[in-house]
């Protein structure tokens, strides 16, 4: 879903495609005859007020907006003190607390759409652990009969009764603010339902684990309080901000209309004032992350987090900007960033960029062999995406590789190097 150019001169296997202005075929546009200036201004602020109310209503209890720019030290200090949080696990100099031998409890959020609902049973089974907690959201656009069958399968498994939570279905718009709000709602539910988890991992139904649940718990448990994002090169951020924030984008998913047929993102012929008046960096990263509980609690309840959420209310692809920008512009959380989300995503194959979406991991050659089996075999990351088939021999192969002790040693070395070198890598973005 996310796109970013490779920072290297030669595109690599895992380098996303270059960002480019959106094609008309991807998003519907409306260009009405230009009304008088006073009417355009009135319409903009009416939209602003309505969407601001919706965002406040759909997240946690209202907190008065903070004073100044997102990078204000006073605001950072007040936010850090205001959020009820577990003991801070990142030291003042940004080093993580090491806890050898401890396993991290993980909160997984899985966003399911109609085309990935068949993937859920196997995905959930592979990442399940009795000490983890899970939130599953089914898009409101999924046909009722299909949705009912999927929920019944989950409820029929007694093992899932205590720690698998099914969220109320909402209308989710691809690339819209409703997708971001849905993730924040999941964070809040998981915080409310379980007091013990340490890390949050968001997934789509098209993700599949390259490591077992036990291995993920073990690796994350060694370094607590970190936040993992895959950033685009910093030189591309301003151009992407112009592309995605300069115009007002209206997300039908925040209309409260359960009868809305498709959940559509519409670009309005109104320039968004935030892109010209902001006093913070609009970061660009993949929407997929591994976030600490401390950071998630801040997202749900922090003053600065709420203010920045409103700043992205009218953006396209806000999920690729909001969380990364919030961490980047906050003095404490910037020190906790590890600049890789631990996902294998293939954007380049034989010199050909995939396009708007990455290659499917389970694509086959003409002879029937999987194109990316070797890359999967040697990957040291947590997940791969996207998988097209809900079950496949490639998934069986992935499941078997998790027993390879030498591979697990390589995974640990890779993660340790990412963590140890995070400050240098952030400076090199």
Tell me the count of domains: 1
Main beta sheet = 5 strands, mixed
Q: For the largest sheet, list the strands in their spatial order.
A: 5-4-3-6-12
The total count of strands amounts to 17
Number of helices: 16
Strand content bin: 5-15%
The termini sit apart by 21 Å
> How does the helix and strand content classify structurally?
alpha/beta
* Shape by Cα distribution: globular
Mean of all residue-level pLDDT scores:
82
Could you please describe the fold and organization of this structure?
With 429 residues, this protein is of the alpha/beta class. The chain has one domain. Helix content is 37%, strand content 14%. It is built from 16 helices and 17 strands. Strands 5-4-3-6-12 form a five-stranded mixed beta sheet, sandwiched between helices. A three-stranded mixed beta sheet has the order 1-11-10. A three-stranded mixed beta sheet has the order 7-17-14. The two termini are 21 Å apart. The model is unreliable at 1-40, 45-51 and 56-96 (pLDDT under 50). The chain crosses the membrane at residues 44-64.
């Amino acid at each position: 879903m996310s796109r970013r150019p490779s920072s290297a001169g030669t595109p690599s296997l895992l380098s996303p495609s270059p960002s480019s202005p959106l094609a008309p075929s991807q998003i519907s546009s409306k260009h009405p005859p230009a009304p008088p200036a006073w009417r355009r201004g009135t319409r903009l602020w009416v939209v602003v007020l309505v969407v601001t109310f919706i965002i406040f209503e759909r997240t946690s209890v209202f907190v008065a907006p903070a004073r100044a720019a997102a990078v204000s030290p006073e605001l950072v200090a007040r936010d850090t003190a205001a959020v009820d949080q577990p003991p801070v696990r990142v030291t003042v100099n940004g080093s993580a607390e090491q806890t050898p031998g401890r396993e991290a409890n993980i909160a997984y959020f899985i966003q399911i759409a109609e085309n990935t609902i068949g993937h859920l049973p196997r995905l959930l089974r592979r990442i399940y652990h009795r000490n983890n907690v899970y939130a599953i959201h089914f898009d409101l656009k999924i046909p009722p009969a299909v949705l009912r069958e999927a929920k019944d399968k989950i409820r029929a498994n007694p093992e899932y009764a205590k720690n698998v939570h099914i969220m109320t279905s909402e209308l989710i718009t691809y690339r819209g603010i409703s997708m971001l709000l849905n993730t924040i709602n999941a964070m809040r539910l998981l915080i409310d339902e379980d007091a013990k988890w340490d890390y949050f991992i968001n997934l789509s139904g098209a993700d599949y684990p390259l490591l077992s649940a036990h291995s993920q718990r073990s690796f994350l448990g060694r370094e607590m309080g970190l936040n993992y994002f895959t950033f685009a090169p910093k030189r591309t951020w301003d151009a992407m901000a112009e592309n995605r924030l300069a115009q007002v984008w209206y997300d039908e998913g925040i209309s409260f209309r359960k009868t809305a047929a498709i959940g559509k993102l519409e670009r309005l012929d109104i320039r968004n004032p935030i892109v010209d008046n902001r006093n913070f960096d609009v970061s660009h990263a993949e929407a997929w992350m591994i976030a600490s509980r401390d950071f998630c609690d801040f997202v749900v309840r922090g003053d600065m987090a709420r203010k920045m959420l409103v700043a992205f209310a009218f953006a396209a692809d806000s999920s690729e900007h909001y969380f990364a920008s919030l961490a980047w512009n906050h003095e404490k959380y910037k020190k906790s960033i590890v600049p890789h989300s631990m996902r294998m995503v293939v954007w380049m194959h034989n010199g050909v960029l995939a396009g708007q979406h990455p290659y499917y991991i389970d694509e086959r050659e003409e002879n029937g062999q999987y194109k990316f089996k070797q890359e999967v075999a040697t990957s040291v990351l947590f997940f791969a995406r996207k998988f097209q088939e809900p079950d496949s021999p490639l998934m069986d192969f992935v499941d078997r590789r998790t027993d390879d002790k030498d591979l697990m040693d390589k995974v640990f070395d890779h993660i340790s190097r990412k963590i140890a070198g995070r400050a240098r890598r952030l400076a090199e973005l």
